[in-house]
Amino acid sequence: MKPDLSGSITRSTIRSPLTPLFLLTALAVGLIALLTIPREEEPQISVPMVDILVSAPGLKAPDAVEQVTKPLESIIMAVPDVDHVYSQTRDDGAMVTARFDVGTDADDAILRIHEKIRANLDSIPYDVPMPLVVGRGINDVPIVTLTLSPDETTGDVWNDTALRMLADELRNELMKVKDVGITDVIGGRPLELRVEPDVQALSAQGVSLQTLVQSVQNAAAAIPSGVAYEDGGALRVQAGDRINALHELERLQIRGAGGRVVYLSDVANVKVAGAETDARVWTMIHGADGRFSAAPAVTVSLAKRPGANAVLVAEAILHRVEALEGTLIPEGIHVEVTRDYGETANHKANELLFHLGLATVSIVVLIAFSIGWREALVTAIVIPTTILLTLFASLMMGYTINRVSLFALIFSIGILVDDAIVIIENIARHWAMKDGRTRIQAAIEAVSEVGNPTIIATLTVIAALLPMMFVSGLMGPYMAPIPANASAAMLFSFFVAVGIAPG
Fold this sequence. Notes:
The protein is built from 16 helices and 16 strands. It is of the alpha+beta class. It folds into four domains: 195 residues, Up-down Bundle (Multidrug efflux transporter AcrB transmembrane fold), CATH 1.20.1640; 88 residues, Multidrug efflux transporter AcrB pore domain (Alpha-Beta Plaits), CATH 3.30.70.1430; 117 residues, Alpha-Beta Plaits (2-Layer Sandwich); 80 residues, Multidrug efflux transporter AcrB TolC docking domain, DN and DC subdomains (2-Layer Sandwich).
């Protein structure tokens, strides 16, 4: 019998010294992929959203709708790949949000919006400032959030302003961790220099409120004025100066009635205090008496960079926090991990991998009792090799380990062992004939006998799965790992079955 494609592959590999090397290489690259491929709960779906923030001082909401929001909506809808436009208008401003089609590059989306707005600025009132364009994406979602709160014994010492200062310092340290993306601090009151005018003192000194406000605003501005050359050197010249300390602001000079010089501290109360905010964060502390009491809290949120492994980034962040305890983070401050996406993603991925291994063992035991130990041994080699090769292919295709991609592997286990079982069972049947052929020749002819049906069966399964790759909308990238991984598993299972299993 002349060998077909399957038989030719078997003849080339059945006694080749490279076959064990191929097997070891497949296991090695698969294990590397298993350890390095990013782990997530769900597939990353790119649905770029761009916020356009517009300040319209003096315009009431109905006027802002007609003069700002509607023209801006028309401009945004003309941008290619924009799927939907949302808007929110209020007094003195508006926000328009553009949602792009699934899979659009986020940077490209921001650039398109920015260029389109600049090209149509004449559609917006001339006295409206240039809109602010801000991109939003899946990588802006925090993977780790840390909540800082005082212990029961230090609640009187650590107020929300002090916690905010500590959280800002902690944020600056955690930003140095590799692959940390956007960070934010939520809660607390940041420090600010506050000027509280004294109405009676202003009247006595002959200083108007408008003069005081303008003097403070001008004092906080430093404007470059050029370069002065002297004695062969160059000096940068600036007009005005910046306020760097409380005492400098207190000694700010203001012109009073009759040209008199009045210090700011004479007509206003100048102090450093926490900024007035619209929102506060609190946590409940369980006291020794069994009662709960409210205490101020501040949350530090950290996202990851695109393409980074959420599990590794989260672990690095938490290790860094542990190292900072006792130094940057003093005693009496409790740091609670209120969100750890890396831990949950790793737990769910490991759980699915466990079920994947359990399914493999179940199939091997079933085949051992129903067919024989030889077929079970081959299956025990074929399934892990195929799965590891599929994980390597998934890494090369840019996919991650998540519940959908692992479902594809679990789904394909029952199919990918068919090739190996059919081929091994037919080889065993040919060996039992004892018609004078060598075991190698009988194995090659056995593979050739069922090779074409095996190829057709493999291609049929792939043809049934691949159309899922072309599903549009949000479900497209969500379901894409199933046909991609299952098809790769089927291809690898065929080559493992005809190239490694007979050996």
